[in-house]
Design a protein that fits this description.
The chain is an alpha+beta fold and 530 residues long. Among the domains are: 4-206, no CATH class; 248-411, Oxidoreductase, molybdopterin-binding domain (Sulfite Oxidase, Chain A, domain 2, Alpha-Beta Complex), CATH 3.90.420.10. The chain is built from 12 helices and 19 strands. The chain has a 5-stranded mixed sheet with strand order 2-1-10-5-6. Helix 2 packs parallel to helix 8 (181-204), helix 6 (108-129) runs antiparallel to helix 7 (142-172) and helix 7 packs antiparallel against helix 8 (181-204). It is globular and about 85 Å long.
């Protein structure tokens, strides 16, 4: 595709180098913004990880775990959004710098060379360095998708850069030719059709098995109301204390993704392979037809801080993971179970953990099919270990004889990841001003499948401790409600709580950040009493 702009480049007056570079940078930023728009459309239609997400995950997995934890502690829920915003800004800046280079000889041939160069550099070099493999060969969508999508988005960038620079240069110096409106509209239409066509084709064919539109069984609509949950029984019904069963709408969610996968149950499959006698592949209907079991499980994120809210308890229904693996016939030399997810996440547990009689492969939460954010169509619940090991959007289970480190473990997080003993004060709230006299204090405590033996509260800097009432858990894998009725005088008090797990081991007093093995220390709430 050529235009009179190229022929006129050598004959027409040229912009001064400074102006050309400035306009080139501006054109590059605008072109990169257009490319980001094309990426967003492609991501929305196909459901497959985009270039910014691959870059973000590659950077994240190579980021020192201590640094990541510090950033997460500082930014909390805004960390992920700010991280991806930084990636987008970085792409705009790189686009601008490439535009400066293009401005030295703004021809159609130079734009084509740039597109091919970017395609090769990112697909072969950068993707490989980020752990995604050549053209995404290590990702679930494979090299065909990532190769085509990279070529498309860089092609959009090249087109947008060529047109934008010609337009800006013509405005700055009218003697310079501009691309015709007809050519602009034609190229814009080609780019739009190619973007929409590729995304839609992938979603309707191959992509539907990995990440198509969310298809939830019609008996419970996605996002529908959850079943009514019973209130906390007396005396654990203090106003402000956590519900013993967490509503689905309030249950915490954490993932590595900017956009979580939307898995089509119609194309979804779960593969069980590796060191097994009978490899199997199950679709959603086959999975949910297996002998069901259910139970209460509490999940906590390993990045939860002392006093944090990244934990919750729910009723889950699914199939026993131990039973499923027994049907597959696990070999005696199996060492670990490696789990794969629709978002290319991988993690592993020791085989003994996977064969825990309470380990569950769940498809329901609080009486309804899992929602997208909680791992639909199926997720794991393995007793005693932090949430990152309880893989969501599960697509594969492979039994291996060797060690395997997952996404977060390669960053330095604990591979075994057993729950620390945690206790939290829900009421009263910090900085509350209360009246002297009787005061009811309450909250939750959890130690994984070790259970909680006792909870104690201190109001005098840990000089003395008062025992609290502790409600038995709904199962051996859940948090437990606690309540203490104390008396406070006219002063400022630091309320502290500690728990003893079911083995008789006291909660660790020493404060530690979540990285690498989960936060430790006593939750403390300061109140003023008048």
């Amino acid at each position: 595709m050529t235009d009179t702009l190229e022929a006129a480049t050598d004959q027409s007056p040229r912009l001064p180098d400074y102006n050309a570079r400035r306009l080139g940078f501006t054109a590059g930023v605008i072109a990169a913004a257009v490319m980001l728009l094309a990426i967003a459309v492609l991501r929305l239609l196909s459901g497959v990880q985009s270039l910014p997400e691959v870059v973000a995950e590659g950077v994240l997995v190579n980021l020192p775990g201590a640094l990541f934890s510090a950033v997460l502690d500082s930014l909390q829920h805004a960390a992920k959004q700010l991280f991806y915003l930084a990636i987008a800004i970085g792409m705009l800046i790189v686009g601008g710098l490439l535009g400066r280079w293009f401005a030295a000889a703004p021809t159609w041939q130079r734009a084509c060379k740039m597109v091919i160069g970017l395609w090769v550099v990112f697909g072969v070099v950068i993707y490989t360095l980020l752990g995604a493999g050549i053209f995404g060969s290590a990702l679930s969508a494979g090299p065909v998708w990532h190769g085509l999508s990279l070529l498309l988005i860089f092609g959009v960038y090249g087109l947008a850069l060529w047109h934008t620079y010609a337009w800006l240069a013509h405005r700055a110096m009218p003697q310079l030719p501009d691309t015709s409106r007809r050519i602009f509209l034609r190229n814009a239409a080609v780019a739009m059709v190619a973007t929409v066509g590729l995304g839609s084709l992938w979603r309707l064919t191959i992509g539907g098995t990995v990440a198509g539109g969310t298809q939830v069984p019609t008996r419970v609509a996605a996002g529908g109301s959850t079943p009514a949950l019973p209130p906390n029984p007396p005396p654990f019904d203090l106003k402000g204390i956590s519900p013993e069963i967490t509503d689905v709408n309030d249950f915490y969610t954490v993932s590595k993704n900017f956009i979580d996968p939307s898995v089509d149950a119609g194309g979804w499959k779960l593969t069980v392979d590796g060191l097994v006698d009978n490899p199997m592949t199950l679709n959603y209907d086959q999975l949910t037809a297996l002998p069901p079991t259910e139970g209460y499980y509490t999940l906590m994120c390993i990045s939860n801080e002392i006093g944090g809210d990244l934990w919750g308890n729910a009723m889950w229904r699914g199939v026993s993971l131990k039973w499923l693996l027994e049907q597959a016939g696990v070999h005696a030399d199996g060492y670990k179970a490696v789990f794969s997810a629709a978002d290319d996440y991988k993690d592993s547990v020791m085989l003994a953990n996977a064969l825990n009689p309470d380990a569950l492969l769940a498809w329901e939460m609080n009486g309804q099919p899992l929602r997208k954010e909680h791992g639909y169509p199926a997720r794991l619940l393995i007793p005693g270990i932090y949430g990152m090991k309880n893989v969501k959007w599960l697509t594969g289970i492979s039994i291996v004889a060797n060690d395997f480190k997952g996404f977060w473990q390669n960053q330095g997080w604990d591979d075994a990841a057993p729950y620390q003993t945690e206790s939290r004060i829900d009421v009263p709230h910090g900085r509350d001003t209360l009246s002297a006299g009787p005061l009811s204090v309450g909250g939750v405590a959890f130690a994984g499948n070790r259970g909680i033996q006792s909870v104690e509260v201190s109001t005098d800097g840990e000089q003395t401790w008062q025992a609290a009432q502790v409600k038995p858990g709904l199962s051996s894998n859940t948090w437990q409600l606690w309540r203490a009725d104390i008396t406070v005088n006219n002063a400022v008090h630091d309320l502290r709580v500690r728990a003893t797990d079911g083995t008789g081991k006291l909660q660790t007093r020493q404060s530690a950040d979540p990285f690498p093995s989960g936060a430790t220390g006593y939750d403390t709430v300061r109140i003023a009493v008048s």
